[in-house]
Every structure is written in structure tokens, then in C-alpha cells.
User: What shape does this take?
Amino acid sequence: MNFDLRLPIGMMFTLFGAMLAIYGLMSDPAAFKKSLGINIDLGWGVVMLVFGVLMLIFALRARKARDRG
Amino acid sequence: MPQTLNLAGIDYAILIIYFVFVLSIGWALKRYMKGSTEFFLSGRSIPAWVTGLAFLSANLGAQEVIGMAASGAKYGIMTSHFYWVGAIPAMVFLAIFMMPFYYGSKARSVPEYLKMRFDEKTRGLNAISFAVMTVFSSGISLHALAQLMETLIGWNYNWCIVISATIVLVYIVFGGLTSAIYNEVLQFFMIVLGFAPLVFLALKDVGGWSALKAKLIPVATNAGFAPGTFTESWSHMGSSLENPLGVGWFGMVMGLGFVLSFGYWCTDFLVVQRAMAANSMSAARRTPLIAAIPKMLFPALVILPGMIAIALYQSGDHFLPMVDAANPAKGLNYNLTIPMMLAKYFPAGLLGIGFTALMASFMSGMAGNVTAFNTVSTYDIYQSYISPNKTDRHYLTVGRVMTVLGIGISVGCAYLAAQFNNIMDMLQLVFGFVNAPLFATFLLGMFWRRATGHGAFWGLLSGTAGAAIFHGLALTQGDVPGIKGGWIAQKISFHSEMGQNFWMAIVAWTTCFVMTIVVSLATEKNKTDAELAGLVYSLTPKPKAEDEPWYKRPVTVGVLVLLATLVLNLIFW
Assistant: This one.
């Protein structure tokens, strides 16, 4: 089957990560009283973004290797 | 109770985007569903990492996430026995010893294996009881989801049922098992990435592990236990009076660790189906092992938040709601531990991720049951008893119809559960009777070639009867005779319902084991050795894995997984 699951996973978490990081940057710091004063949206958004991008890189590399082979 | 979670625009956006991805995966897979093998078995073409995570995720329904956090709050770290005793050893056993028969026999389902190994009536018994159980479990999942959403956010119960059932329906009708598996993997990452920050924030808030340990001492002593009861998993298992589980080590190891755990992980088609979809024998055997690695770390993700919640509660932070605000004696509503912690720590944005993870796990719990149901009802019931010898195309269509039917019945069950709580308790009790003896049948079937069809069938029935009779004689202190037990006479007394349940499983298993042997010896062997090749251990060539690197050899990885689990037990002894 020609369907690499890493592609949708990567796309989804790249999107979620970017959304969260941007939202965290724009939010009023008072919103983060709940999360012990940590801008967790920005921090965790970046983590998810990195995870998503890594998944995309793996998926695209696998596709390239398959096209060549 | 008023609504307790306030979702902002970004949270809704995340939820909707998630559903769009879920449905698109189903849509994208539609063109690959050419025949029934693709629809029910994913064409045996899925790589091991995907089947492995799906294997784990199929079991990681919301009841598990919510229930394990609740148990963490109620029992402390002893809840880890459900992982390190009650899951990992059975998963390793499945990988090393049982997968060769399931995958190698080319059986398309667990009931079909029973037919190949034993006979038609054993398959029929298993297939019908399994089909009924999955569809009810799916309904219970659906009900729990709608009820929680109604409580937390004030969503309409009916709409909640309709929308989640429709989403699951659409992606399974399009993409079959592959769709369910892919979405389970997506859900796995949602759960991990959605709950990891919760653990981080909660642990930081409570002051770290050693502060948590200190704060859990009064929780234990107030309940009348030794100070370390909530943070030491084995030290207080000497007798059922020493710990909040109300279970001694023998009942726990045999009942949970052996009978219930092996019965579930090694014979339940819901999880085994994921491994059967793997693209090779080697991948099928690695599936439970790949699942075991995150599984052994999951206590940190689901039990730890519960422990922290109760520690904070003890120190005066009363964010956990009562079961009944008017009657505090009824105690805390532990089932709201996870949702309350999400509400407490997560700001808008991250709350969307955590909430979507919760919602996703309800739906994939339902989808897992539905895919197991449509396979068994199409292959083992429809094709076997109603309409054999049709074209493959026909069975593919029937599979889609069964999906719609299964979801329809699930919705009915959800409303039944909403109306009559007792009916669901009763059904789950009966399911317990049916499931408890199963592993004895499989163990004898796979490792004793003399076991016969009659032996298996009567062994299973008597195991179920044994469970029912034991339940009728046993009662937990403080319970009223009836659905909780003791409806024949109250001869055996337990300190907790969990202990009663574990011992019921032990009795059912032993009854089935003994009866299968007795009846097998008294009846003629109904399959020749040639027919049993590939189905029984002594008559099957051992799979060779020598040419694979060490990390792909099931035995090597299995031993490493067991060693790591042992170390975890020792650290938190």
C-alpha cells in the first residue's frame, strides 16, 4: 500500500505546533497563571512543531528513496 | 454540575482540524479497499511500528485513561500492577509463543483459529459471544463520551452521540481496519503529546517526586494504611488488609497477572487483529513488543496525574468534585481526575490538544470494537452460518453493512446504558464470566495436541458456569447480595470487589483447564496431526529469526522488555 502514515501525522502536528506557538506568542501573559506562569502554549507548540517536521522529513525522504529505487 | 471546561475558539479549531484529518485518512484509504482482505485485515500489509502503536492504542480507550488516573488517585502506585504485572508479561508471551499460530495459520480472526484448531461449535460459541460483547463495549464507550461531554462542556447528549458515531462510521466504512489502525496511531501521538505537559505541570506544581511522596503519606495513614502504601507497589501486598486494593499478592499475580491479563492480551481479537494486519510474520511477532515499550512507561502518563491529584487534594487544593455535592460522605468523583486537571493547568490552546486527545481516545475505543465486530460478524457468523460461498466482493459489502449495523446497535446500547445503569453492570458481569476461562482453552489448544473440540467447548462452558457459581457464593464485605455476588449463598467473603473479581477469574480458568483435559481424554481426537500442523506448538516448525538484527528478534527483545519491567518493579517496590 502506497500510503505513508508519517505524512498525515507530520502535517497535523506541524500545524498544531505552529498554531499553538503563535497563539502562545500573542496571548496575554495573565493567561498562563494556570500553567504556573509558564508560556506552555509556546513551549509545547515548539515541541509539537519539531516532532511534526521530523515526521515530515522522514516521510519525504522515504518517498524520495522509493522513487529512486 | 455546571460546566467545568471552557473551550476557546482555538480549542474548537484544534478539535475540528483533528476530525478533518481523521476523516481524510479514511477517504484517502478508500481506493485501496478492493476486497474483503483489505477491508478486514488491511491486506496484511502494515509495517510493525504502525501495528504496534495501534495494538497499544486499541486498548488505550478513554475508559483506560480516565480509569487509570482514577485508580492512581484511589490506590496510588499499586495501580502500576495493571501494567507491569497485568499487561507486559502477557504481551511478551503473545509475541513469542502465540503469534506464530495466529499469523502462521492464516486464520482471519481469533474465532476462526478456534475452528481450525478445534471445531465449529467452539468457534460459534466464541464468535457470537465476542460479537455481542464488542458491540456493547462500543456502546458503553459512546455513552461515556456523551455523558462526559455533557457534564464538562454542557454539550447536548444526543448530538454528541450522533456526531461521534457518524465520524467513526464514515472512516471505517471507507477505510476498514486500515483506517481504524491509522487513526489509532494518530490518537496514540495525541494522547502522549496531549498529556505529557499535564504530567510536567502537575509534577512541578506538587514540588517533584519526593514532595509527592511526602504528601501521599497522610493520604495513606488517614485511610489506615502504612505511610508508604501509595508510593510502594509491592511492599504492602502481603495480605488483602494491608493495601487499598484489598488484594493480596497471590490473588493479584494469579488473577490479574495470569488469568485476566493473558486472557485479554493473548485471546481478545480486538488487540490480536492489529498484529494479524502486520506485513510479515516477523512484524506480527514484533507488534506486541513494540507496544510493550510505551506501555511500560504509561503509568507515568496516566497513573501519576491521579496520584498528584489526590496529594494536592489532601494538602487543601479541593479541585476534585464530589460524587454528590449534597452528600460528601459518598466521596470524590475520581473519574473526573483527568478532566479536572486539564481544566486546572491547561490554558486555551493546549487545552484544545488535551481535550481532543481525550475525545479521540473515546472514539478510537469505539472504532476498535467496531472493526473487530464487523470482521467476526462477517467471516465467522455471516459467511459461516448464513451465506457461505459468495464472491469476495459480496463479503466486502456485507462488511460495510455490518459496520453500519454495529454502530447502529452501539447507539442503541448507549441509550440503554443511559436509561438502565443496572443492565450494563449485569452485562459486564456476564462478559466477565465468558472471558475469564478463555485463556485455558487457548493454552491447551496451542500446547497440547490431544485437546479435542468437545474438550474445548465443554471446558469453556463449564469455566463460564464455574465463574457464575463462584460469583453466586462470594461477596465483598459491605455489599448487598445480588448483582455484586452472593445470590446463591454468602460462603466466601472478600475485602474488595477487585479481589473477588480476581479470584473469580482464577476459579473460572481452573475449571476450564481441568474440564478441557478431562473431556479431551474421554473423547476421540477430532483432528489428525497433519491437520494440526501450524496450529499446535509441537507440530509446527519453529520460526527462524537468526538472520535478523538483534532488535528484530522477538525472543531477544521480549527478554529485554521483561528485564526492563522487572527493573521498574524493583525501583518502585
Q: What stands out?
A: Chain A has one domain: 7-64. Chain A touches chain B through 28 residues (CB under 8 Å). Residues 7-64 of chain A form one domain. The mean pLDDT of chain A is 92.
